[in-house]
Amino acid sequence: MYIKKLTNLWVFLGLLFGAVVAIAEEQAPIKSVSVQVNWHHQYQFAGFYAALAQGYYRDEGLDVTIKDWRPGLDIVDEVVSGRATFGTAYSSAVVDFIHGAPIAAVMTSFQFSPMVLLSKEPITHLSQLSGKTVSHYNNLQILALLNRAEQDLTAPLITIPPSGDLNDFINKKIDLYGAYETNEPYQLKEHNLSYHLVKPADFGVNSMEDIVIVAQKFADRYPDVVERFRRATVAGWRYAIDNQPEVVAFIMQNYPVVKSEQALVYEAQATTKYVRVGRIPIGAIDASRVLATAAEARDIGLITDSLFNQFSPKAFIFNSTGLGSLTEEERAFLHQNPVIRIGNDINWAPFEFIDAKGQYAGMVADYFRLFEQRLGVRFEPQKNTTWSETLSKVQQGEIHLLSGATPTPERLEYLKFTQPYLTFPMVLAGNPDTFFINHYQELEGKTVAVVRDYWSHEYLQNNYPQVNLYLVDSVLEGLQAVMSGKAFVYSGNLAVINYIMRQQGITGMQIVGQSDQRFELAIGVPRDNPLLFSIMQKALDDITLDEHNAIYAKWVNLSLLTRLDNRQLFQLLIYGLLIAFALIAWIVVYRVQKQQLKVFLSQVNELSYASHIDPHTYKIVWASDSYTKLTGYSSSELAELSILDLMRVKMSEDELAMIVNQVMKGDSWTGEIEGQSKQGVSYWVEITLSPQRNLFGKVEKLLATRVNITDKKRLETQSIEDELTGLYNRRYLLQLFDKELGRLKRLNHTLCLAVFDLDYFKLINDTYGHEQGDQVLQQISMLSKVYFGRANDYVFRLGGEEFLIMTSNQSSTVFMEQLEKFRLAIITARIPNESTELGWLSLSLGAGVWASDSISAFKDVYRDLDNALYLAKNLGRNKLVMIDEDTQAQPST
Q1: How far apart are CA 66 and CA 56, in angstroms?
Q2: Which of 209, 268, 324, 616 could make a disulfide contact with 113, Cβ separation 3.0–4.6 Å?
Q3: Burial of 226 by CB count in 10 Å (0-12 exposed, 13-18 middle, 19+ buried)?
């Protein structure tokens, strides 16, 4: 009995131990990672502390250590070297990346930088910085601010190396002291010391701060770890914002804090507005904001124009899937389905096929390899299944999607298709003696070979029932049916036919007809799986133009076809010298090969939005289908237009003539042009003009090829626009001014400028709150666009409540009348400002009109404008002062 009980005990313990081991094996191993912060422990890093305290990291399978900071520490070097897994870096990390640092941005703690300059006096204009001493840590925001100030300075700034001692500012050794708005101001308040903040954002400088970075090598190897860390840290920030006292207590108890608990509480309250901003998700990194940061770095000389132009913000931003827009539900689907079975064609080169090594290959296969990298799953192809069997399997739910198929009425009943990602014409291949077939109706009564269940099979069956179909199982079998006389022609995809003919060495066939229909290859997903459909469409949208072009160039090899032509032509030419019959044969083969080359060049032209331009009239004499779609005009409409008519901002004929003269000399020209479609939609292209010569060497037309850079330009536009108002920012003013001035000098036009400032705007913020203040700024901006909305009118937000209007070719009287109407419109709008005598918002303006040839730089006129604005305010505000020879005020009522 005792032995039996003992045996049972051991059995129980064995089962218990086995269960414990099984549970342990099921749990993911804990990954140890570290975070290097860039300052002393404080609420600035609350997201990390809260995620640690609440177990968010542990829930994600991470063991996180937050490393102490020490003076002289290089955060980027710590991360790249591997001494820290993650690091909190300043926005200058963008510059480090552009210069080659192998890092990626995981998230940002602060959507807006809290970096400021402390000052003993209020600074409302950058000219007030003249001759002052400044101490800072070369933060990008401060450097950009000081760079903007240079043109307004009457005496240079004196930079003092930072000591880190706030007493330098308190004891007036330093006029301007670089600080975090969440830190040093509290220390000054504790000592009842007065101070003022110079915020870079008020002067148009604004970027993210405390960007969490990781080494690219680590991100490539452990993308899931990086994503889990990001997810837990964002959750930590959410908790920290809502539970500030608790997180403050945790920091004080567990880390060596160099400030008081009260200071930490102040910091917590001040930090929230930088972490959670409107509808922007916590931690989110916007590509346009990154590009704007790079533009600031370029403006202050930290990077060159060339490096800036090559910079891709998306390359800097980490994304575990490459698809930041995936929902939590979509991510969960991918996590639950690490292997997705795809329905593919095993014998449809160059689109997709199983090669001699048994591997899935082709254009479609290359796309799905990119999808694997972005989505973090594996796509499993079929290797021994015919296309008909594949279609049956997808209907029965045995496979998850069709990799590349054309939407047809039958397929649309059970599949939902993404946007097409490959498109080629449907053509007819026949013997050399077959006359060209202009329309498929000419095939009635004839036998046409098609691959069973391909789109061409369904298309002919539904639309041309009088055509006799000869069904085959592969493209090669279809071509062989034509060569053997079993079929009159083969109907299929141009790219596939060309690939098979080259691969098999088939020379006795040619393209004898082309349908107006095209093979529009898309991804087909069963209609009962909307999650997977959404994921695949987003993955497809994430493929870049360069990636599309690289796949196309890999499989549609024009250079190979050209080399083949030259070799054949050379051989046939030798035979032609021997006998006349060989010469005739050479002409026939030449025509066939040139026709094929023409067809493929047509494909290239479609990809490059190509057109031909008359170099004398600038008229468009021919346009590709893709270019007509881009412009919205038909070919006949384009033939009546010159390229000047298609530009959104008209180029002068003189400028165009200079470009055309360069091309006529035999050189190509490349530049960026903003176009406008027939529907008024703006688009940007990088256009290349190349000379096209006739047999006598004379340039008779220009070939224009284009790359659509609309998305890139949209990012650039966001970097030159003020985020709140949508007006141009100060950076763009400085970029545009010299160019606009040069244009006005050539035209001998006047330059008209006005600076205006919202009267007592601070009272609106104090009385109604900053959110209401932002709405007022937006309302004023919209009104300014109404009154200054001509093609040559520009309105800029210089910073805070100060704006600038720039226009041209007006007299002082006309410009003054226009400004007066604008000033009165603000009063009429009755925007409440109850704390003022008027009771409504008003504005003060300083303005002037100059002969353009009397100006050499913006600073030549800005100081006069600033003085006029100052005079308008001294006259009681709500006034307009026009600069004339005596700089006298024009009173306003």
Answers
A1: 14
A2: 209
A3: buried
Q: What is the dihedral of CA 685, 686, 690, 692, to 10 degrees?
A: -20
Displacement of CA 422 from its chain's centroid (Å): 22
Domain-embedded: residue 888: no
- Give 343's contacts (C-beta < 8 A, 6+ positions apart): 382, 385, 390, 391, 393, 394, 399, 401, 402, 403
pLDDT at residue number 392: 92
Using an 8 Å Cβ cutoff, are 453 and 387 in contact?
A: yes
Q: What pLDDT does residue 600 have?
A: 41
Measured CA to CA, the distance from residue 893 to residue 876 in angstroms comes to: 11
Phi, psi values for residue 651, rounded to 5°: -90, 140
Q: Residue 27: what pLDDT?
A: 41
pLDDT of residue 717: 67
Examine residue 350 and say whether the peptide bond preceding it is cis (omega within 30 degrees of 0). Answer: yes
Same domain, 268 and 305: yes
- Is the pTM of the predicted complex or chain greater than 0.90? no
Whole-angstrom Cα distance, residue 755 to residue 134? Answer: 28
Separation CA 453–CA 466 (nearest Å): 18
Tell me the average pLDDT across 543-562: 62
Give the integer Cα–Cα distance in Å for 883 and 821: 18
Cα–Cα distance for residue pair 210/274, rounded to 1 Å: 11
Task: Supply the range of the domain harboring residue 628.
Answer: 608-715
Residues 241 and 197 in one domain: no
Q: What angle do CA 301, 306, 309 make, to 5 degrees?
A: 105
| Domain CATH code at residue 696 | 3.30.450.20
Could you tell me the strand order of the sheet in which 360-361 lies?
A: 347-348, 352-354, 360-361
Q: What is the CATH number of the domain that holds 151?
A: 3.40.190.10
Mean pLDDT (whole number) for 2-16: 39
Instruction: Using pLDDT thresholds of 50, 70 and 90, give the confidence band for residue 585.
Output: low
Q: Are residues 170 and 213 in the same domain?
A: no
pLDDT digits (tens, 9 = 90+) for 374-407: 888 999 999 999 888 999 999 999 999 999 988 8
Position 89: which residue type?
A: A
DSSP H or E run through 570 = helix 558-578
Same domain, 761 and 826: yes
Task: Identify the DSSP state of 623.
Answer: E
- CA–CA separation, 85 vs 64, rounded Å? 10
Q: Amino acid identity of 509? A: M
Both tokens of 681, joined, read: 């939609």
Domain stop point among 316, 336, 361: 316
890: nearest Cα among 830, 844, 842: 844
Give the Cβ contact number of residue 208 at 10 Å: 25
Q: Which of 715, 746, 768 is the last residue of a domain?
A: 715
